[in-house]
Amino acid sequence: MSGLEIVGLHVSIGDRDVVRAVDLHVKPGTCVGLVGASGSGKSLTALASLGLLPRAARVTAGRILLGGDETVTPGRDRSAEVRGSGIAMIFQSPRAALNPVLRAGHQVERVLRRNGQRDDLTRRCVELLGATGLPEPDKIARLYPHELSGGMCQRVMIAMGIASEPEVLIADEPTTALDVTVQAEILDLLDDLRSRTGMGMLLISHDMSIVAERCESISVMRQGEIVESGTSWAVLNSPRHPFTTELVRDVTYRPGIESSPAPSSSAGPADGPARKDGR
Amino acid sequence: MSRTGAGFSAGRPDDTVPAGGPGRSARLRGELRRHPSLLVGGVLAAAMVIAAIAGHVAPPDNPLAINPGHALAPPGPGHWFGTDQFGRDVFSRVLYGLGMDVVIGLIVAALAFAVGAMAGIISGYLGGWIDDIVMRVIDIVMSLPPFLLALSIAVVLGNTVRNVVIAITIAYVPYLLRLTRSGVLTMRGADYVLGARAVGASRSRVMALHVLPNAVGPSMVQAALMVGWAILDVSGLSFLGVGIQPPSPELGVQIAQGASYITSGQWWISVFPGVAIILTVLAYNFLGDYADDKLRGQGS
Amino acid sequence: MRRYIIRRLGLAVLTLAGVVVLVFMLTHILPGNPALVQAGGRANAHTLQEIERQMGLNRSLAAQFGSYLGNIANGSLGTSYTTGNTAAHDLLTRLPATAELAVASTILATIIGVPLGVAVGLREGSVTDWAGRVGAIIGTSIPLYWLGLVLIVVFYADLHIAPAPIGEVNAFAAMPPSYTHSLVLDSLLSGNWATLSDALRHLALPAVTLGIVETAPIFKITRSATLEVAGSDYMRTARAYGLSRWEVLKNDILRNAATRVLTALGIVFGFLLGGSILVERIYDWPGIGLYAWNAVTTTDYNAIQGYILLIGVLYVLLNLAVDLLYAAADPRIRFGSAGDRPRRRPRPAWQGRRVISPPSVERH
Questions:
Q1: Per mean pLDDT, which of B32-41, B249-258, C270-279 is the most reliable?
Q2: Which of B32-41, B202-211, B224-233 has the weakest average pLDDT?
Q3: Burial level of B11, CB count in 10 A (0-12/13-18/19+)?
Q4: Do the Cβ atoms of C233 and A83 come within 8 Å?
Q5: How far is it, in rounded angstroms, from Cα C121 to Cα C115?
Q6: Which band of pLDDT confidence, cut at 50, 70 and 90, is reported for residue C189?
Q7: Which CATH superfamily is domain B33-58+82-297 in?
Q8: Which B residues in the span 220-259 are in contact with C, Cβ-Cβ below 8 Å?
Q9: Where do the domains of chain A lie, and which CATH numbers do they carry?
């Protein structure tokens, strides 16, 4: 079990290289953060791992492996076999990412069915919805996406993700479109699921503070290239690339962020007013 | 998305580019390449216009002259489209009738646009109960298919060209009214309009400079498409014997006159006028398609 | 949902009332003397007066409106002076024949138009896409009546495949009893297979004529709906989870495109109502369209009026039905409220001809 390996990935749109020589390795059980501004190529990298690049884009070099097997290389794309079964992705605007005319439960059941489950679909589906912290999951399963809040929709998506029994879950800006109060809950949920199922997670965000808090290692992407990568502690405390320094600078001004590698540490200064910038 | 761009980018060396940059014909060529609808529509429309003018100015044969000796001749060297039951040359008649239909189509579209757009702007701008009533009325009028609405109006008014034009125009006005009104309502809330008002521009100035051009755009495109619709409708009405009557060489009349000869094998009397209609309506449909693409800012 | 239904019903009733008034206005208020038209210009003043009296034109407008409403209320719609029956009787006995055409042609157009639209919508930018769009543009440029004549030339006169365009059935066919006044249904119900087969053979060409022209708007709307779905976030999700093509087609594409396709059906009905008069004239098909044409040529005012009224009512009812189906297909309407976007079925444009909308038009 080696999780998701992206080796030397190059993606081009037309004759423009939009992703250059990207290396990422998401081991099972770990969380890798991918940070960068919009347009830096982080989403394209993720989409490439699922073979979901937009029509105009192409993988021109490199390989992507899942669990040791090659899934994507230039000219050969076997990702269809692992999509939704071994690797799963959750997206930024959860309500838009759900089919508006299907009930929530049905959408989870579809993924279960894709993974070979034939009997007991409803029960298993309700189980999964419950595992994502939804209250009364049997009732939620019968609702349509437009009847659910953003946070609930994201939990439904996460249930779909878990239903794929993934080695690695890719979370592309999972909390960006959500209420600030809900953001932490969702991230906590993802952490919890990670430790329970042993899956790896690739957490993509433009927000360094989220990634800093949740990930063991961080890669910083800028204009299609990874400009810095390493353990969170190393990246946050001794950033080498000037861009990283800028990103990190914003983070260290927010108290409450751990800046030491020890898992248990004292809380930062001032629990009071500084906290109100949204945690 | 470049408004003026052709296939040229500013920096590309090209020895056909005149010193000042890409010329108008180069821009046109690029536009044609990216929007085949424009090319096809333009060529067809031009061809039809030329044919129509030729039909009036210099027809091969007198389109109205009866010549019983040569009746029902199939297409051949003397008569490219054959002759009808009165010995008239179908080719000349088609060209001649084409002119009639195109002119009628243009008039209907222009009138419907003028009335519909104006009414739509007024209704949208005034809002309130006036607007509500107008919309109710429009909804009711649109409960009848436009062809049938035009049919009933034309029947009641009487069978003349003028009445048929009025009838079809009335049937089309609701669309243009709604379209323009939608545009006005959308524009009224648009940020830049609010911005203009905020810096103190007067209501009418805002209307004229900002709201009007953008509201009216889609309905102009629609009016272009309506030229084609009008030709289909007017010829359909004449085919049924409503509106324009024989011996007028209007294309629908021609098709009707040839209809009874279809089953006995003399197909050319009805078929050729129809082809002329198709080509003309096709031209306006393509032009409308191009205009629509431009409006939405895409290539076709 | 109940609010939606009630609103739609209420709107339909209002519109029906409006149609009733509109039809009266069309025939009574427009300039032009119906008596003169009916008399045919040969009449002298005396005959004209007599006709006017017969038609009730010498009474006040209010009185005329009153008797018009009375005719509607008693279900007669006035008497047709050509057939001697009430217009209502004439129309209702001929409606099933038109319905046969409508149903047959719509089935044809849907079978061709929807799969083609989906297939092309999924291949945006390809040659197939371009060919489909061009085909649709050509399809909306063809005069319906001309197409009918051409099909007769090719399939009857030249190839002798189709029967003569002389109506529903051969002159010598054994007619079944008139349960429904639909020849197809009646012969089916009475087990008259020979007549049924003859009826179907005669139905073929007119249905194809209407069907060909109907295919274009159905295709265009299905294509456009498919494009919208294909570019959506939830489509990306479906692909991301490796769902099978069949599953995606059924539950993502078709179920989401369904609402737009239903709107297309509303458009198509409008087209059918208008086009039936042309097709029935050409094929001598004894439906309400042919009746209307006869009424027009003989200036049978009650018949014309009854026909227009019927069309208006049919259209309002058909759109109501489509509205209700729309609600059934879209859970956002069935279960509540604002949600993300205000959901209101867009008003249908007539005859599938494209009506351009300004960007971001929601409900106005």
A1: B249-258
A2: B202-211
A3: exposed
A4: no
A5: 10
A6: confident
A7: MetI-like (1.10.3720.10)
A8: 221-222, 225, 228-229, 232, 235-236, 239-242, 252, 255, 258-259
A9: 1-81+202-254 (3.40.50.300)
